[in-house]
Amino acid sequence: MAVFKNVGMKQEKSLSNEALKAILMKQPVGVGIFTNAQFQFYKSGVMTEETLKCSSEKNSVNHGVTLIGYGKTTKAEEKKYCEEFWIVRNSWGGKWGEDGFFRLCMDGTGSSSQPYGICQLNRFPTYPTMEPHPIESEILLSE
């Protein structure tokens, strides 16, 4: 019998923005989102639900990304459409978006149009807990 060490992880269900921010203060968080064709054309700025139309409960999560931070808009024009945003790392390379990153507006999370946040970002956040849990397994050795 062999024992493997697992650093542990936790998958939440439907976290509020405040709860997600608290976890982010400690570490990045893996999240699933629903992406559509609008994402491939992203260059910069804060994407909103009004533009993406990605937050319906009927949409299935289809892309994994890493949530790395959040911020508040400073430009008067952006502030008109969005107060706070998530900073997200994508896997599409540094030539896409803002050097491989993008920003999603977090306003409206929990509303009827965004029950799980924009593009369902708040629906299934997953992060390491660093709590070891032994996993027992039998190892078969051939002689």
Task: Briefly say what this structure is.
By secondary structure, this protein is α+β, with helices and mostly antiparallel strands. The protein has helices spanning 17-24, 49-52, 76-81, and strands at residues 2-4, 9-11, 29-33, 46-47, 63-72, 84-89, 101-105, 126-128, 135-137.
What does this structure look like?
There is one protein chain. The protein has 143 residues and is an alpha+beta fold. It has a single domain, classed as Cysteine proteinases (Cathepsin B, Chain A), CATH 3.90.70. Helices cover 13% and strands 28% of the residues. The chain contains 3 helices and 9 strands, in the order ββαββαβαββββ. The chain has helices at residues 17-24, 49-52, 76-81, and strands spanning 2-4, 9-11, 29-33, 46-47, 63-72, 84-89, 101-105, 126-128, 135-137. Strands 3-5-6-7-4 form a 5-stranded mixed beta sheet. Strands 1-9 form a two-stranded antiparallel sheet. The chain is globular and about 55 Å long.
CATH T-level fold name: Cathepsin B, Chain A
CATH 4th-level superfamily: Cysteine proteinases
Q: N- to C-terminal separation?
A: 17 Å
From the alpha-carbon coordinates, what is the Rg to the nearest angstrom?
Answer: 18 Å
Quick tags:
Cathepsin B, Chain A, two-stranded antiparallel sheet, 5-stranded mixed sheet, alpha+beta, 143 residues
Q: What order do the helices and strands come in, and which of them pair?
A:
Elements: E1 2-4, E2 9-11, H1 17-24, E3 29-33, E4 46-47, H2 49-52, E5 63-72, H3 76-81, E6 84-89, E7 101-105, E8 126-128, E9 135-137
Parallel strand pairs: 4-7
Antiparallel strand pairs: 1-9, 2-8, 3-5, 5-6, 6-7
